From TrEMBL:
InterPro entries hit by this protein: FAD/NAD-bd_sf, Prenylcys_lyase, Prenylcysteine_Oxase1
Organism listed in the record: Anabas testudineus
This protein's encoding gene: PCYOX1L
Name recorded for this polypeptide: Prenylcysteine lyase domain-containing protein
Domain Prenylcysteine lyase: 127-490
Family of the protein in this entry: Belongs to the prenylcysteine oxidase family.
Signal sequence coordinates: 1-18
BP-aspect Gene Ontology terms: prenylated protein catabolic process; prenylcysteine catabolic process
The protein's required cofactors: FAD
């Protein structure tokens, strides 16, 4: 969760330094870059380092700057000698980049532990999962009609189109903007989905308001801490993550980040980047990064720089640009605050209408949007290392729970949710953008050889979205450096790929 600078979405050099054309950024002599910097070592930054190494080869020096912990928003906390995910915790089975990372790194899938889910409206459970799939389907049909079928078909259609990105990237194609990437996948429909509220799109599909309020809203609240006014595209990503075919990495998802950095042979610098400045030497443009580490303040020159940390308002980074002005009339953006509270204690099942905890069958409880509900979800969580004999704690036993809430929980609120507790650990995340309609999408190319990864989050925020953006930037940087314009922003890519085959 690093980064904060006001409208820095696109930059143009000022003063005696003229704005450059990104397509004119290649070195005419054909020499490869000497040094590349990546600022940020979360999943986006570490994946970028990995893909840059793939495309630019073993000779280029790849420096990765991280002021805090490797992993960024993939993080764990320790309770009773066990680690639990406090950040990004689930990965969809269609996330092909994440799957490939796990395979290449020799990591393992975490063993899943079954658990049922319910939806609470502040007074009672209005939706309860059972042990019988057909009964659950019947209950959905009885309460909501065919809304859930319409929703499922809509999400599957979007995911099927999104999967095209893997073919495009496998053939080496890149995109200079998030809009171009989305247009290549789903045409203007995908772009419009980033500008239209989820609720409007679902009502147009024929999904009932009741289904939106009681099923869709709880999912968006637990995944993004926001309501159904979020854009339809991010809503579709959120709903895809509510399916059963999810997984996680044994030992913690952050192991992917450290593993990718090692596999890329990247030089990890535990340092805060303070300033980025353009340096013109003849025809060559480089960027000087000034940074502070335990050894003091230093500076270094780089041929290519990738910013893999949020640059919007509401996220502190301490990063400043010297010699840059912004030509875009972009409004400052904010990241949404979500509080993850890890509690070791006894859940107060009476609050949910179950005075006897032995009769409480749910591992997780989502909530509808009600003014008096102070939390978005509460769930019994498993450690990142699950032994063969592991079993989930029963509600009458002391267990470890993760509570998502918009604000840090007051002591009275903790006492409402828990009969008693041994420990409480709070992590306040600037976890994802605060989504609104007609927000626009930040650029990928800030200037020649200067790229911004996290703009993809304004289309959708997820581990795989960052990985897709990382691959795109590595390809884009490679093609720009080598003047391979025919590999950037090409139209009708499905047809081109078929003719190539």
């Amino acid at each position: 969760m690093c980064g904060s600078l006001l409208p820095l979405f696109a930059v143009v050099l000022s003063g005696c330094f003229a704005a450059g054309d990104p397509e004119g950024s290649a070195h005419v002599d054909g020499s490869p870059p000497s040094k590349i910097a990546v600022v940020g070592a979360g999943i986006g930054g570490s994946a970028t380092a990995h893909f840059l190494r793939q495309h630019f080869g073993p000779e280029v020096q790849v420096d990765v700057f991280e002021k805090a912990e490797v992993g960024g928003r993939l993080a764990t906390v320790t309770v009773n000698h066990n680690d639990y995910e406090s950040g990004g915790s689930i990965i969809h089975s269609l996330n092909l980049h994440m799957q490939e990372f796990v395979k290449q790194l020799g990591l393992k899938y975490r063993r899943s532990v079954a658990g049922k889910t319910a939806v609470f409206n502040g007074e009672e459970m209005i939706l309860e999962e059972t042990d019988w799939y057909l009964l659950d389907l019947f209950r959905l049909w009885w309460r909501y009609g065919i809304s859930f079928i319409r929703l499922q078909m809509w999400v599957e259609e979007i995911m099927e189109k999104f999967m095209r990105i893997y073919k495009y990237q496998a053939h080496g194609y890149a995109f200079s903007t998030v809009e171009e990437l989305l247009d290549s996948l789903g045409g203007s429909g995908f772009i419009n989905m980033t500008r239209r509220p989820l609720s409007d799109s679902l009502l147009e599909l024929g999904v009932s308001q009741r289904f939106i309020d009681e099923v869709i809203a709880p999912v968006t609240r637990v995944n993004y801490g926001q309501n159904v006014s979020i854009p339809a595209f991010i809503g579709a990503v959120s709903l895809a993550s509510a399916q059963n075919n999810l997984w996680a990495v044994e030992g913690g998802n952050k192991l992917v980040c450290s593993g990718l950095l090692k596999m890329a042979n990247a030089n990890l610098l535990q340092a805060q980047v303070n300033t980025i400045s353009p340096i013109q030497s003849g025809e060559a443009l480089q960027y000087q990064l000034s940074y502070t580490s335990a050894a003091g303040t230093e500076s270094e020159l780089y041929d290519i720089v990738v910013l893999a940390a949020p640059l919007q308002t509401g996220v502190e980074s301490g990063l400043h640009f010297q010699g840059f002005t912004s030509p875009f009339d972009q409004l400052p953006r904010e990241y949404h605050s979500t509080v993850a509270t890890i509690v070791h204690g006894y859940l107060n099942t009476s609050f949910f209408g179950f005075p006897d905890p032995r009769l409480f069958p749910f591992a997780s409880v989502l909530t509808t949007e009600k003014p008096d509900l102070f939390f978005n979800s509460v769930a019994s969580v498993c450690p990142v290392n699950i032994s063969a004999g592991f079993r989930r704690k029963q509600p009458q036993e002391a267990g470890v729970y993760k509570v998502f809430s918009p604000q840090p929980l007051e002591k009275s609120e903790l006492k409402t949710l828990f009969r008693s507790y041994y420990s409480v650990q709070v992590t306040e995340w600037k976890a994802y953008p605060h989504y609104g309609s007609n927000q626009g999408l930040p650029p990928v190319e800030l200037h020649q050889n200067l790229y911004y990864l996290n703009g993809i989050e304004w289309a959708a925020s997820a581990m795989e979205m960052s990985s897709v953006a990382a691959k795109n930037i590595a390809l884009l940087a490679y093609h720009r450096w080598n003047r391979q314009t025919d590999m950037v922003d090409q139209k009708d890519l499905m047809h081109r790929i078929k003719t190539e085959l």
